[in-house]
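Anyone up for a design puzzle?
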């Protein structure tokens, strides 16, 4: 009797243990999508899905050669985004999961009036998380989703998937996650700076080749769910002082004598700007008060006092803020987020000057721009007046 009881208990234990993993799947039998690209052409959505060979991500003991085949790009199309995504499944060979998506790239055409539709479809699936990094691009999406990596680094560590480490070293264009875009997407006056990426590389060489490498080259200004336009290069300089959430460090080259060689190079960090608005004439005038800290990196002229250097830097930053404002205003782009400032801090003025006007930015002016630069030190060197 005891023997039959023992055998029964053993059989039940085996059944309990074995049924715990009856539906488990091996990693190699699932397509884990790591990046999504969405384009819109000829009244059709085009969905791109990026697959990365996980064997190329694992730690390697010796030198290996990275081949382009490490990354596969799928392409599906349809009159709706869900149809385009479903089109991808037809030849995917095995189950496809979207839970590991780390980056989303939207084309310029997709940014124009298609954002509401795109996010409704993506987020209704329930598989996509709210934490992927999100970008816009003017380039071909398959090119952007198939970049190279330096040396034998993992493709999963490139700027597309891990932008924040590079941004802390060189705060050119602030990366944002999907939930940050969604937070302001449906707000009536929010301004979102969506970073733009490209894979054009003129900096790093491998022999005679220029491998395609991801870099941010500007930002798209998104307001009321629409794309106002792209801002790049020097046209974005003033925005860095006025409307970035956080600037870790960024160089400022001060050209005091007007030559090609900067007289002074500072490493700036933590700029903060206070905005105040007032009605003046037939529009709204905004006064700015900007404070920023700096560290001396290079000095190419005879010894100057810290006060002289601070004043030169302040003039250059004020000039950048005014130039950026005027250039973007002429394109009807509110990169400083003045509309959002009115909405949050002076609702009555927002209703009067913005709510029912087709083009409120035309009536905006820049008033006083007070910049205060505080030079903290000269890096590892001692600086004396």
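Challenge accepted. My sequence:
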């Amino acid at each position: 009797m005891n023997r039959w009881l023992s055998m029964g208990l053993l059989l039940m234990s085996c059944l309990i243990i074995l049924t715990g993993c009856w539906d488990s799947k091996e990693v190699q039998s699932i397509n884990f999508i790591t990046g999504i690209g969405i384009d819109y052409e000829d009244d059709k959505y085009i969905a791109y899905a990026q697959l990365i060979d996980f064997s190329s991500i694992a730690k390697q003991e010796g030198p290996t050669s990275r081949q382009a085949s490490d990354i596969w790009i799928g392409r599906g199309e349809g009159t709706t985004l869900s149809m385009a995504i479903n089109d991808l499944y037809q030849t995917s060979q095995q189950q496809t999961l979207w839970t590991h998506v780390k980056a989303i790239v939207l084309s310029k055409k997709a940014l124009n009036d298609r954002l509401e539709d795109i996010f409704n479809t993506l987020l209704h699936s329930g598989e996509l998380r709210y934490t992927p990094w999100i970008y816009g691009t003017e380039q071909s999406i398959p090119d952007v989703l198939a970049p190279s990596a330096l040396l034998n680094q993992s493709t999963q560590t490139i700027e597309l998937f891990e932008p924040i480490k590079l941004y802390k070293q060189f705060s050119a264009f602030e990366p944002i996650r999907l939930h940050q875009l969604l937070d302001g997407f449906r707000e009536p006056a929010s301004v979102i700076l969506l970073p733009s990426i490209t894979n054009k590389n003129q900096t790093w060489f491998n022999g005679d080749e220029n491998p395609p490498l991801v870099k941010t080259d500007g930002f798209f200004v998104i307001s009321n769910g629409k794309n106002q336009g792209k801002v790049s290069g020097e046209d974005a300089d003033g925005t860095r002082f006025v409307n970035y959430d956080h600037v870790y460090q960024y160089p400022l080259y001060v050209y005091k004598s007007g030559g090609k060689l900067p007289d002074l190079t500072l490493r700036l960090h933590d700029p903060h700007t206070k905005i105040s608005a007032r009605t003046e004439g037939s529009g709204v005038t905004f006064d700015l008060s900007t404070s920023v800290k700096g560290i001396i990196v290079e000095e190419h002229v005879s010894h100057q006092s810290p006060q002289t250097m601070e004043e030169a830097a302040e003039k250059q930053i004020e000039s950048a803020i005014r130039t950026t404002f005027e250039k973007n205003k002429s394109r009807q782009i509110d990169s400083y987020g003045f509309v959002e400032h009115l909405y949050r801090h002076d609702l009555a003025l927002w209703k009067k000057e913005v709510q029912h006007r087709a083009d409120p930015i035309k009536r905006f002016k820049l008033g006083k721009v007070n910049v205060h630069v505080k030079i903290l030190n000269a890096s590892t060197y001692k600086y004396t007046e």
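A detail worth pointing out: Residues 62-66 have pLDDT under 50 and may be disordered.
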